[in-house]
Amino acid sequence: MRKQARTEWWERLPAGIREEIDGYxxxxxxxxxxxxxxxxxxxxxxxxxxxxxxxxxxxxxxYGDRIARTPDNPLDVESLAYRAGGxxxxxVAIEALWDGDTMHDWFVRLLAITADPAEEHALATVYARMAxxxxxxxxxxxxxxxxxxxxxxxxxxxxAHLSVPFHFxxxxxxxxxxxRWQPVAPSETGR
Length: 191
Fold this sequence. Notes:
By secondary structure, this protein is α+β, with helices and mostly antiparallel strands.
C-alpha cells in the first residue's frame, strides 16, 4: 500500500479509532496498534498485516520523539550480572541468539543458561538503536552488524565476569536457526 493510499485510508477512519491507534503508538505498543489496524481494516478494506505495519510506521514517524519509548535493557556488565544473579540455577553459559520481526528487524537476545534447573533466563534484548548507542563508546563496527557486535561485546564481557563460556553461533550474520549452546559432556573433557 503506497503512502498516499495509507494516508487516505487513515483519514477515512472514525476519529475514535484513530485516537485508539495513536494511543497505542504513543505508548510504544506497536503490536497492539498493528493488531487494531488489522482488526478494523482487514475485512472492510483488505488492510492486512504488511499494510498495517506501514500505517502504524507512519504514525510513529508522525509522533517521533513524543512516543514514550520502551526503555532499552542495560548492557553494562554490572547490570547484566545483577540480572543473571536472579537465575534460579547455577549459570553454566551466556548465550546470544538472533531473532527478528518486521518491526525491529534483527535483534539479539542475551540469555543466562543454567543447570539445576536446566533453564534459560532472559538478560537483555539488543535492538539496533541501543546497539548503536552502546557502540558509540567503542568506535566504528566496520562491516559487522552493529546488533551482533554489541551483543558479542556485552555477552562476552558478562561471560568473562562470571567465568563461564559465551556462545554466539553467528555473531557476524543474523541467523535465527544457528546452533544452540550445548554443554560439554564429562566424557569429552577427559574426566
